[in-house]
Every structure is written in C-alpha cells, then in structure tokens.
Amino acid sequence: MANESEGNKRISPLLEYGITKAVLHCLPNILELNKAATVCKSWNETAKIIKKNRNQIYSTSNIDSYEDYSCVQELLSCMRSQPCVCLVFLTHAGLAEIPPPLPELKLDCHNGAHFGRCTEYRLLHYLRRSMPSDCIIVGGIANGVVTSTPSLLTNEVEEGDGYGLLFIPEIQNLSIRNFHLDRQKMKNVGKAITSQTEEVGRLLNIKDDDQVQCLVLLGTDAYKESKCIEALCRYFQDKRNQNIAIGGGFVEAAIHPDVVDGDREYGITGLVFCGPRVKANSVIVPPDATSDSDIERILVQLKEKHLSSFSGEKMKSIGFMVACVARGTHLHGRSGVESAIFRKHFPTTPLLGFFGNGEIGINCLGPASLTTAPQSFQSNLPSAPKKSRITYLHSYATTFTLISFPVE
C-alpha cells in the first residue's frame, strides 16, 4: 500500500500538468489564456509553455472607418498567439483638428464631446486596453494606408478613413527592437555615430550581440530629419558592416510608447529586426517604373532573391510597403495595383504600409549584391560601382521590405 501511495504521488504532478495543459489549450483566445494564467503558479507556468509554442501572425483592417473596431474585436476573439508587437497605420483625415489627448485617457470617463474629435486615438486607446500590457504598439498616421485582411486580401486606402493592423508574437528566432528619437536624441545619436559609437546601441535600444537584418524607419519631417536618417542608415551599413534591408517613409504623426498622442513634434521611429536566421530584403520601385510589368519585374527579383536564401526551413514572412502619395490611383488610374502585384507573388505574406510624403529604403537583394538605390528603372537592378553614393531618401517611389524568419 505504501509503495502504491508513493507511486500515485510521483505521477500526480504529471497528470496535473497534462490536464492543465489540455484545459488551457482549449481556451478560445489569448486573452482568456492570460486570465487563466493568473489562477496559480502552475497554471501560469503551463500558459507560458503554451504561448511559447504559438507563433501565428495576425493581420486585420477596416477600410471604411477608424471608429469601427468590429474587425479588431473579431480577431481578438480568435487570436491564440500572444502579440509582442502591434503595428498600426491609420489614415490622417481630420488630424489637423485633433488636440493631444491626455496621456492617461480613460474611454469610459472622458468627455465625449471632446473625445469625438479624437477618433484616430480612440482606436489606439482601445488597442492599449485590449492588448497584453507588454505588447508594444508602433506605427503612424498617414495620408493613406496599405492593409491586409485576416484572409490576406490587400487594400490600398488613399482617401477617407481606414486602418491596418499587424500583430507579431514573440518568436524564438526573431528579436524586434524599437526606438523613438526626439529632437534631443537625434542630436545625441548624430554625435555618437561620429565620435562615441559605443553609445549608439544604447540610444537605439540595440544590444551588442544583436545581428541586425532589417531596419524600418518612420520619419515625420523629411527636411529636419534627413541627415539623421542617412546617418542611421550608413551606421548600420558601414559601422556595423552589415548588408541589411532598409525600408520606411514619412508619416503625418508617429505612434510609439514614447510619443504622446497628437504630438506634432518631429522625430524618428525605428523598428529593428534581428536574428542570425532572419532573412530580409528590400527593393525600390523608382519613379519611372510606372507600368504593371515594370513593377512586377522588380517584385519577381525580390521573390527570387529572397527564396534563394532559404535552406528548407519552415519560414513565416511579413511585408512592408510605403508608396508616394502621388503614386497609387494618381499614377495607375486604378487602386491597389502595386499591393496586388505583391500579393500575386507573396500570397501568404501579410502586407502593411502607408502612402507617405517621402520614402526611405535601398535595394538589398542579399550578401552577394551591393545595396544600391537606382535613379531610373532597370529590370535587372545591377550593382553600382563600389564608390557610388547610396541614396536612402526617395520621392515618387515605392519601397517594399520583406522579412522572413524560421518557426519551430
């Protein structure tokens, strides 16, 4: 009897773990799982294991109104991965009339008459209230947005209201750093790049052992920020001696934990994708690439170069698109041309982006090619001479950035 009792005691924790895991695994969404994790220590540990094995990326959008959150609510009701980064781009209709809301604004108690004019920021407060507390919300408010639905249908909203969201969970082989440089930090970074390079990593929230593969930059004032943006790009290309993908552009207002909603002060927001097994490429669709076939040739080359870097691993990808406000319908005579071509060649990759007042990026097609920014359309995107100056800032262009990472 004593031996049988001891055996039951030894097997009991295993049975308890198995039952707990089965119960938690059946919960409908990540919010319910997080609630269950607060029951006791063992449930919390089991929930951590479950979340670690979930790596689903989610996207959603509303192309009619940024006051309608039904698509977000629907997504949250079935979202099973814990997002660590939420990327959001909203249209800027009415932005000029929006006063900065209070940093600690509460939806239930705020004066409705005033808050009715803050529709863009009401969505952000809804996200902050709904997302896990450690989920970083980053993005911008722009002239137009490029979005993907949960079923990966792409849309380009150039006029009117709309927003797009991309939720990225914590993935073992991927680290995403973020930073925001205000006026003073931009000066500090400029000084550090030229004389105190060891300080740059601290200012950009980047660790010494981070293997940077991609840099996405969001500016708000091309005239005031161009020198700092070029210095940042050169730092990653030269000082760190890395052939990294670079993309981004200029938004009307930044969205970042260090930015008060409605703040018009200029600054640079950055996302840095790191990891030894992360693959990233970027291309520029230059001003004179105006036909569908021109754009398709560039994206086909992006696809070929990107896929050639895989080694049979199971990969997931995300894409960023930033287009000049003068492209889109103004150039093609119809909406959704460039995002549709991307979708044709990358059918399972969520695409998010915006229409901006200036584009940031380079052609980065792998370690074998020198990154360059062509001034005119060339179907094969040949490498420039080694001494040629790389152009990071563009106009009347579109930038595509593609990032892939292995999942277990």
From TrEMBL:
Superkingdom, taxonomy of origin: Eukaryota
Record-linked Pfam families: FIST_C
InterPro entries referenced in this protein's UniProt entry, alphabetically: FIST_C
GO biological process, one term: protein polyubiquitination
Protein's UniProt name: F-box only protein
